[in-house]
Write a structure and sequence with these properties.
about 170 residues, mainly beta, 2 domains, five-stranded mixed sheet, two-stranded antiparallel ribbon, 2 helices, 7 strands, binds zinc ion
Length: about 170
């Protein structure tokens, strides 16, 4: 996933990359990764705007169903030849190129961006009803007759006492 920048004249350039997850060092649950990149050369600097699209096979945190999560994320990176200029940018958005470097490699940043795009909570849909805590039925697919006891702390002490006394009358 390299862009050749040696001898590039000033201006705006567009690139597309399609890469397998494995080639980017991503795990097998990820699909192929598509990147649309826009590179602008200004003087001795390059501004890269990258749009990334892929998908991931997931297990829903609530109902344990397998589903596909579509992932989309953008990032911006400034490439400079002079370290002295780096302070002008957000440290997360600047890379200093080796003197005379003739290409920039997007692979590391694309991989990181894909990982950042994975949501913390994996849900097959926002309205997923999950599994019944009592009988385990998938509540998206049907309902059951279970009535989860409402949590009511006033009864906890009594219940504990009753459990400890193994069913004896009190
Ligand atoms: Zn679910
Ligand atoms: Zn149930």
């Amino acid at each position: 996933m390299k862009i050749h920048v040696g001898g590039l004249s000033e201006g705006i350039y567009e690139y597309r990359f399609d890469e397998t997850a494995a080639a980017l060092g991503l795990a097998g649950e990820f699909s192929d990764v598509h990147v649309e990149a826009r590179l602008e050369k200004r003087g001795e600097e390059f501004l890269l705007e990258s749009g990334i699209r892929t998908a991931m096979q997931c297990t829903c945190d609530r109902c344990l169903a397998e589903y596909t999560e579509e992932l989309e994320h953008d990032y911006v990176m400034h490439y400079l030849y002079s370290e002295a200029d780096a302070g002008r940018f957000d440290p997360a958005e600047v890379l200093v190129l080796a003197p005379g470097a003739s290409s920039i490699d997007l692979a590391d940043d694309v991989r990181q961006t894909v990982l950042v795009a994975v949501p913390l909570k994996l849900l097959c849909k926002q309205t997923c009803k999950g599994l019944c805590p009592m009988c385990g039925i998938n509540l998206n697919e049907g309902s059951c007759g279970c009535r989860p006891e409402p949590p009511d702390s006033r009864w906890d002490a009594l219940r504990t006492f009753r459990d400890r006394s193994s069913g004896q009358e009190f």
